[in-house]
Amino acid sequence: MHWMDVKMVRAKMEDVNSTNATWSNQEPGLPSASVAKRALAIIGGDKSVEPYYKGWHEAQSNAYDAMVNPGGCIQLGLSENKLSLDLLEQWFSTHNTAPAPEFEDTLNFKAIAGYPDVYHGLLVFRKLIAKFMDEVYGGVVTFNPEKMVVTTGATSAIEILAFCLADPGDVFLVPAPYYPGFDRDINFRSQVDLVPVPGLSENEFSITRAGLEQVFDESENRGKKVKAILMTSPSNPLGKTYSKDELLMILDFVREKGIHLICDEIYAGSVFGTSEFVSIAELVLAPPFEPSQVHVIYGLSKILGIPGFRVGLLYTWNDQVLDAAKRLTRFTSVPTLTQQILVSLLSDRQFLHSYLSENQKRLRARWNTVKHALQEAGLPFIPCTAGFYCWVNIGQTVGVTSKEQEHNLWRKLLYEVGVNVTLGSACQCTEPGWFRLCFAFVDDKTMAVALDRIKKFCYSVRQNGRCL
């Protein structure tokens, strides 16, 4: 949901009577107990009305199955990596996740059954995550576990940062197109608004200094306090890495404006193309930049394909943010049992090294399959070098020129073609017709069916004319 839409929902909620949708045996004439306006605002902005989430629902309720439901919907709208899940299943089936002797003092049953000593992650767990990140980042960055706060997923880490860096009504600038869930993650409870910084297809939707300056000035002129830039690196949904020069430009911008930078690097371990991944952590410690203005988000859900474990983290050089975040993890702490299981996994450095290498190969192979299919279908796309998705212009095939037409095309793809992809407008893309296509969620055979459906649709449109 766009930040302006959220504001309109809040305004409408001012006059909403919360009891009109609730069954009650309250005696007539007695006052009723209402819920908070902010709760009503979330209900008013229910995810079920968003196409992004509607697509999920259709793909779940009418899921494709080659034998049981061959006409069902194939999920290409969820950024989850199942390509290497078999490697983890094999590891867990052949390894004991009980604590090793060196961890028995902190991970025995009595220790994990009681309240933890800290809520922001056991030290042994943070140390192992730091070592894992060192390897994922190619050894060019060393992470300090004392600057790390472990949370129940990257979403919680991002929300904590929104709480710590901004007050309700303040804004974050977000290079667009961006991950649709950011609006929910940032705005629902912290009530911080997101302002897109539009990108253009002519330069592959790159972030520019001019674009940042324009949106920053427009926000300030509206009386809005800009507190941070929020970005994903590698980009979700573009599927590309950022160059060192681009990141230095952004660092210079936040330094001059006196604002923060939140860099979500959860796809750092999923780079499979020829381009090099550069972490913001590699650059921020050098003068003239101020490390306390920069905060890194990471997690295990993407690279290991285990979002259900709910393990994310916030890494910050800002002592005030670090102290506040530690206190806030009281509400978002990772269960000690989960940490124990992952300590066993993260301790197996040999397995993790081979896993990262094999996962990279599988992502590259899957992208090559998708790339060739898109080329056969005649669909323009941004060259993909990272992540589990690509940014493709399906709308060009049918002459999409408006958001309404884009929505109609999405509905046709979802309900008639049988593939769920993410609308560009849900990612705040200003050019209609672009979609995010996630390619790591389904197996090879299902992916082949999905790509065949897309190719047949494009062929049919070219043979029979526009379909909207």
Description:
The protein has 468 residues and is α/β, with parallel strands linked by helices. It has 2 domains: 47-86 and 351-457, Alpha-Beta Complex (Aspartate Aminotransferase, domain 1), CATH 3.90.1150; 98-347, Type I PLP-dependent aspartate aminotransferase-like (Major domain) (Aspartate Aminotransferase, domain 2), CATH 3.40.640.10. Helices cover 43% and strands 11% of the residues. It contains 18 helices and 12 strands. A 7-stranded mixed beta sheet has the order 2-8-7-6-5-3-4, with helices on both faces. The chain has a 3-stranded antiparallel beta sheet with strand order 9-12-11. Helix 9 links the parallel strand 3 (171-175) and strand 4. The two termini are 25 Å apart. It holds the Pfam family Aminotran_1_2. It comes from Riccia sorocarpa. Keywords: Pyridoxal phosphate. This is Aminotransferase class I/classII large domain-containing protein. InterPro entries: Aminotransferase_I/II_large, Ethylene_sulfur-biosynth, NHTrfase_class1_PyrdxlP-BS, PyrdxlP-dep_Trfase, PyrdxlP-dep_Trfase_major, PyrdxlP-dep_Trfase_small.
Number of beta strands:
12
Rg, Cα atoms, Å: 23 Å
Please state roughly what percent of the residues sit in beta strands, choosing from under 5%, 5-15%, 15-25%, 25-35%, 35-45% or over 45%.
5-15%
Question: What is the domain total for the residues?
Answer: 2
Weakly predicted, low-confidence segments: 1-21
Q: How would you write the strand order of the largest sheet?
A: 2-8-7-6-5-3-4
Order of helices and strands: HHHEHHHHEHEHEHEHEHEEHHHEHHEEEH
Sheet/helix structural class: alpha/beta
CATH class of the largest domain: Alpha Beta
Overall residue-averaged pLDDT value: 89
